[in-house]
Amino acid sequence: MTDFLEPFESIGENCEFGFVQRALGHEVSSFLRWTFLDSTAATIAGISTSFAEVFKYENLEPAAEGTMVRDRAHGIAFHTSMHAKNTETGWDFLASDEERRVIHAEELRKIDYLRDKFDRTVTGTGRIYVAKRCSGLSVDDARAISEVIGKRGGNALLYVTTTDGSEQPGTVRLVHDRMAHGIVERFAPHTKANDISLSSWEAVLRNARSFLDL
């Protein structure tokens, strides 16, 4: 049964939590599930502005070995069919401008749909947004994310860090009634985001439901 996963939705930094959902048998589309966000500031700015005008064609540049594009205005990288190659002068798109605009228009329709879906849920209740950064997410940054979520609606934040050896993976602590801190054994490496510590992630998610009863 995957009912306990229903409230959770990723808000970055990368697609690790998307692979956690997949491994636990919970496939659901969401705006930031398969993206990479440059920073906590990008997360906060995007939530506060509803990610307005995200994925504009003129703001896109090649990223991540040419299989993603980065929206430099928002600091978010998306998977794309607008592939690129690394040359002596830097990354160059493989397709022509005309061909990329056709691809972009198709991808933008999906992104706009997911962005609108995110905006509806973030202004409502019943969601637990999951945030992590491989380099570590401080409690101050987590509080800042929680604050902007609180300004948009009545949802909660679960921020996740790795154990320093003094805390058991799977541990969850309530910070306040709309924010909890979860501990996992380790994060997946950036180059292999599906190499997850599934048992500790699952324990965190199950325990978080008991603390964040929405």
Strand-residue proportion: 15-25%
Helix and strand composition category:
alpha/beta
| Poorly predicted runs | none
Any idea what the shape is?
globular
The overall number of domains is: 2
Question: How many beta-strand elements?
Answer: 11
What's the end-to-end separation, in Å?
A: 19 Å
Oligomer: single chain
Helix and strand string, N-terminal first? Answer: EHEHEEEEEHEHEEEH
> Biggest sheet: strands, sense, closure?
5 strands, mixed
Strand order of the largest sheet: 1-8-9-11-10
Number of helices: 5
Give the C-alpha Rg. 17 Å
- Average of per-residue pLDDT values: 95
**Residue share in helix:** 25-40%
Q: How would you explain this protein's 3D organization?
A:
This protein starts with 7 loop residues before the first strand and ends with a helix. A hairpin with a 4-residue loop joins strand 4 and strand 5 (about 75-80). The mean pLDDT is about 95. The longest helix has 26 residues, at about 95-120. Helix 2 (about 40-50) runs parallel beside helix 4. The radius of gyration is 17 Å and the shape is globular. The chain has five helices and eleven strands; from the N terminus they run E-H-E-H-E-E-E-E-E-H-E-H-E-E-E-H. With about 210 residues, the chain is of the alpha/beta class. Helices cover about 35% and strands about 25% of the residues. It has helices at about 15-25, 40-50, 95-120, 140-150, 200-210; strands at about 10, 35, 60-65, 70, 75-80, 85, 90-95, 125-130, 155-160, 170-175, 180-185. The strands form three sheets. It has a five-stranded mixed beta sheet. It has two domains: about 5-40 and about 120-210; about 55-115, no CATH class.
